[in-house]
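name: query_chain
kind: protein
chains: 1
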Amino acid sequence: MGRATAGSARRSRRGSAAASSPAGGSRRGRGKAAGGPPAGPGAQAQPPGPGAFDLGAQSGRWAAFQERHRLSCEEAARLLLDAYEYRGLVKHTGGCHCGAVRFEVWASADLHVFNCNCSICTKKQNRHFIVPASRFKLLKGADNLTTYTFNTHRAQHTFCKTCGVQSFYTPRSNPDGYGIAPHCLDDGTVQTIVTEDINGKEWEKAVKEHKTIRDMSKP
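structure:
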């Protein structure tokens, strides 16, 4: 995977973007914001330690939010962190043909897809976009996946044992992330697709010269 050739970008539309809020997880009850026990008479106030936080004037809002949504402090904090870290992204869902493998992935509604011409990508038409591992979650089907490798064995070509569809895999260019097949996503969350041709026949040279591909799997 590497440098795009001139005129290689192609734009297409697929459905309408539908932004989603990050999942908040299960509701295990309510908790309180960190802070520790009250200080005794004459004791000096200590700054919050690691993992603790002072909500200041927002303490009332925080407590009311937890009470209203029946969230523990951890669950409320996760909602806040996810909303910040995933801002501008939407939650896509997808999977294989038979439904044994299902996943969710946080990515832009406007996808940058690589079209590689290496031997295996050509034979299986492996168009994909790359995301950090932290934005991908396998919902089901781990025991229904099998993996094919060849040559350097760094790329992990995972596919469903039942229907043979590869809906995602681990690219050689980005072993710390995932390559997601846009054509295996459910309808409704992809707005546009820009396709970049990659000269996989000269893989080492192409990846070395590409300015951004290695960074696409970084959080």
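note: The longest helix spans residues 73-85.
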